[in-house]
Amino acid sequence: MAPLLKITDLSLTFLNDQDPEGENPVLTDVCLELNHGATHALVGESGSGKSVTALSILRLLEESSRVRTSGRIVFDGRDILSLNQKELRRIRGDRIAMIFQEPMTSLNPVYTIGSQLQESLLLHRGMNKSEARAKAIRLLGRTGVSQPEYRIDSYPHQLSGGQRQRVMIAMALACRPDLLIADEPTTALDVSIQDQILALIKDIQQEYNMAVLLITHDLTMVHKIAETVSIMQQGRIVEQGRTTTIFQAPRHPYTKHLLDSVPSGTPLPCKDGPDLITLSHLRCEFVLKSAGNGLFKRKKTVIKAVDDVSLHVRQGTTLGIVGESGSGKTTLGQCLLKLNNSTGTIT
Question: Domain-by-domain residue ranges, the chain?
Fold first, then answer.
């Protein structure tokens, strides 16, 4: 069987309008294959070309930059680089979907997450608005967003970073794509939710025979879910093969360097010192409003973002605040700076 995605000798250069000779080559002779239902990981340090490779598959770089591209990107027998914009729009968000790394900049701040989730369902699945809304609520619930029937009417800035990332994942999975490009899909999520999201992606992958191109620097994640892996350095793939083989017997010096960089330190001992800041019975609440079915049917729900928190930080020490996405960590920090209204005492 032919691979679902085959990239051959892909090279890409950013062009400079002010300086015709100021070209910046970012990809050089990239080759990789991805079969139906398989997971391939693209691994490398920041700036190695991982995300540019992913964006090239959907030709999204052409929307914001002047680029020169050569090589072939064949998806299900069709060369992506030869398609016109109308043909590309039929594929984007439907047969090929992408989870972007920065949900705050990828989500539109002036639209609710519900309207953005429903867009691809209305466009590619022909649903009416009520069907699309019901489907969007189910998707939010599956990806771990609490109270999805209320959150669906929220704007991106009203959600935590982890919740925004889960919205992005729900959007990508909405049309059950043949190929899912996941660019750091769990960056903003805590460890427990990471496992849930990865399990969700694997479940849907197996159910619909979906291929996954995983872009990450998390070697533990790669070892856990990817069958094959490509190691990128300075726009080139320097090593490629089965994940178990690469991890057990790396050949390229850069691959060895990445594997040797996995943290394995010991925790620092606790220090003692005078109290610098003390929180007593701190509380912070938000009221969410849902549009309901009419002008006089608006629903309200109270979210206790911070509920009776007391703690103290000693001078010269570091206190870690740990919890899952949406547990109130960031809100607590904002309360310390009086960026959110709160009750209790801060001294």
Answer: 5-260, 275-346
